[in-house]
Amino acid sequence: MPTTDPDVQLSGAGAVKNCVHVAVAVIVRGGRVLIARRPDHVHQGGLLEFPGGKVELDETVQQALVREILEEIGLRVPLASLTPVIVIRHNYGDKQVCLDVWQTTEAEGEAEGREGQPIDWLAPDALRDEDFPAANRPIIRALQLPGRLAVLGTITSPVEGIARLSSAVASTGSPLLVLRAPGLGSDGYRQLAAQALAVCSEVGVRVILHGQPEWLEEFPDAAGLHLPWREAERLSARPVPWDRRLGVSCHSAEQLRHAGRLGADYATLGPVLATPSHPDKAGMGWAEFERLVADATMPVYGLGGMTPNHERECRERGGQGIAGIGYWW
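Given the sequence above, the corresponding structure tokens read:
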């Protein structure tokens, strides 16, 4: 879980020492998120930000947020209402930060910029990367991504896949579907994708293609691309435009770091628990999942043996939510 040390000592590849520990609040009201504009004279001045401030020596992250939000915005945040979102470590070159991000939907009072800063309430989909400091991008992704990521189950043909998808897609519990079908060849996957895009669009579900980056060129209406590790490991740069989602299947700390280098918008990590398809193979467990997620630079979904009942635990362990097949397929 997030550390309470204001001068965080990090370890591992890409880590930075003496990182300024900043508590960040995602305050949600009526489906909109509170944002403020940074003063021109401060670091990253003029850009938008989520309110918060540095964690002092005698404070927990949550205590720092309660204090900062009252001082800066005039809102009272019940301590027990704060839930973890993500921890981000970022090196700006001239400054290193560790953003410890927590969310609440129970802030009380009327918001005002008590330090003269303009504030506003914006829908998550209206948040644009270029308006915020670079370190905030994973926060934006975490707010824009759902808590569940549906993955297509095993199929033997495009015809079977579309028939089952047509009857089940409305029960995904997610606006995103990873169209994974490793058993099909290129022609079969092409046929499946063309029909799946139409079927999913009818119920408001967007399709993330699975496999090679070239698929996005053929299907420009797809929401993005999910890379299996065998595809991700051979890449050295982000293979898709920034207006499309990029996901990576990961199983270790180094794979998560590589996903970060590729600019992934999210990763799946697992297996967390044993799965029906491999009941004799133990998963990494929640403690290991939490440890690995703590160093990730993007939202991470727990994968492997997941059910809707695991979504809350996954978030409490620092994850974005659950990804899987069995809970809906």
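The chain has nine helices and 16 strands. Try to locate this feature in the token string yourself.
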